[in-house]
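Hello forum,

I keep getting stuck at the same step: I have a sequence, I want structure tokens, and every attempt I make locally crashes halfway through. Rather than fight my setup again tonight, could one of you with a working pipeline run this one for me? It's a single chain of 217 residues.
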Amino acid sequence: MIIAIDGPAASGKSISAKIVAEQLGFTYLDTGAMYRCVTLAMINAGADISDSKHINALLDDLKIDLVNNDGQLQIMMNNTDVTDNIRTMEVTENVSAVSALKNVRDSMVKMQREIASKTNCVMEGRDIGTVVFPEAKYKFFLTSDVKERARRRQRDLLALGEKKSIEDLVEDIQRRDAYDSTRELSPLRKAEDAIEIDTTDLTIDGQVSKIIEIVNA
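Reply #2:
Ran it on my machine without issues. Output:
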């Protein structure tokens, strides 16, 4: 069984998907983290976004492992723990452009489908229910007020020792929403049969409970 959870940045997809997977005993697949790994690899290698040859070489050598370490998801890239590294502002500011590249998406979608073919899986991203697994048994689309999403992103950054104003983060998120929604390849959009959940005023437990209730029913 595949449960697809899509939505814009900071709408609560990752934490909801992780807890839903834990409660159902499913594998949690953070597709956003996978695209962040590619972005980090490109930044570390100084790869230009227009240099397809260099990017293809990076993809060929890229190994991504999502490890459950005592209940905490650990992101390994080429056997190095990059769990915190992929959440920096530098990666965040570049990941939308990188994830829009066809060679990157083709590589990551292939990897995601291989993983999901072997296990019950909760997957979150922006195109899981529309492109990666349009046949997913359950599809959810999470939304939230942009200011609330900015507050959530600010808390995440503070945990990493980075500071940015709510105003700047609102602009960043709106810019990313516009880019993700209008890109030519796999744009952010709600699948016709997806269930929409507004998480603005919901606690994490509240949004997880809504998803679990629907799946169990």
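The first strand starts at residue 2 and ends at 6. If your local run keeps crashing, start a new thread with the error log.
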